[in-house]
Automatic annotation (TrEMBL):
This is 4Fe-4S ferredoxin-type domain-containing protein. It is found in: Cell membrane. It comes from Cereibacter changlensis JA139. Signal peptide: none annotated. It comes from the Bacteria. The chain crosses the membrane at residues 25-46, 58-84, 105-125, 131-153, 255-273, 320-345, 357-381, 393-414, 426-447.
Amino acid sequence: MEPAPARPAGAVQGLGLWLRDRQALLSWLQGGMVVLYALVLLLPVLLPEGGVARIAQFLIWGLWAPGVLLSVLLFGRLWCGALCPEGALTALASRHGRGRAIPRWMRWPGWPFASFAVVTVYGQMISVWHFPLPALLLLGGSTSAAVLVGLLYGREKRVWCRYLCPVNGLFGLLARLAPLRFAVDAAAWDSCPPERARGQRFICEPMVPVRTMDSASPCHMCGRCAGFRDAVRLEARLPGVEVVRGGGATGWDSLLVIVGMIGLGTVAFYWNLGPWHSALRQTLAQGLTGIGWLWPLETAAPWWLLTGPPGSEPGRVVDVAALLGVLAGMTAGLSLMVALPLALATRLLGPWEGRRFHHLAQGLIPLAAAGLILGAGRFTVKLLRDAGWDTTAAPLGLALLALGAGWSAVLITLSVRRHATGTARGWLATGAALLALPPPLATWALLVRIG
Ligand code: SF4
């Protein structure tokens, strides 16, 4: 019997098929990105300070950081599948590696949060945004680890991206908001005649169980599975609909949204603008002097442990402790201000259920994303000003915040409605949950005003 003809593809579906058939082009693009990445990391270190270093700094922090965040919101993780140099290198290494089994420790579900937190904090410790050598250490170290993992584990897979990449969790959360995703029709998959399936093969490098994939979170949008068994297709959807549906959100996701993206993600841009760091340093110094323990005050911290912002004094060991303390304290404070209203809303909706709390926490992703883009964008503006451009981005920043907050408010309201058992209780819970928005919103608005 002749296999039934495939359904004609719509424009979006056709885009997915187009992507599937352009894998050679994607390989060339990734090769180009690897070369560019190596140049912007190495040239500023090798050449004397000047124009090249500034251009490289602008490309990495002024353009790449906010640009990639925006791209994930718009196109899902297309950046990972089509352009990321680190992903391309780990995949390449994996093709020639040992193909060992993935160890259990690597499958720990807390890595997306833990690696994001460690890299964010360490980035602050060494002022990664300001100097080329710290940037090379952090980004180059991450890429070296990705290549090593590729050489050791998996075969033609992106084990690093799937489990350890510091932005894997962040991008996975942002992709839930994206208006594009690869959708799978499991029934069509199962009923596809063997004659049609024969000869169709693809390798999903980030190891997504494609048949059961119901989230855009793990998918790198590489397009390889498009059209497989007439069941996989690129489709458009309402932005954020996956968050409202809420399936599969976990405690680690909530930790990454509240403590990672909102807490640390805000504090990382904010901690040195107030008196908190010097006050804590002063307190620590007095305490240490009081007990006669002077070495933390006298011993210089090596640059790879602490590099202050441009123009600051060389750091001492006590400065490292003060920085870690202020980051931890401020992050905990902001995270609590966000988590408590959500916890109250969860309880108002019935007996305590962690699953419900995690569902509501996902509604904060748009505001958290706006904050991160704004933080990275501040650096873009600073670099443009340093280059002599008279730039002000305050109105754009406030508009971005308003958009993020509004989007979060809608998602939270719709999410609460999926749990509300009675109207009054539902509205009360909505009001409580929306109280999670003002603390980060006010912090970011203040940051925009400071400029
Ligand atoms: S599920 Fe895998 S193969 Fe399919 S588009 Fe996503 S990353 Fe590529």
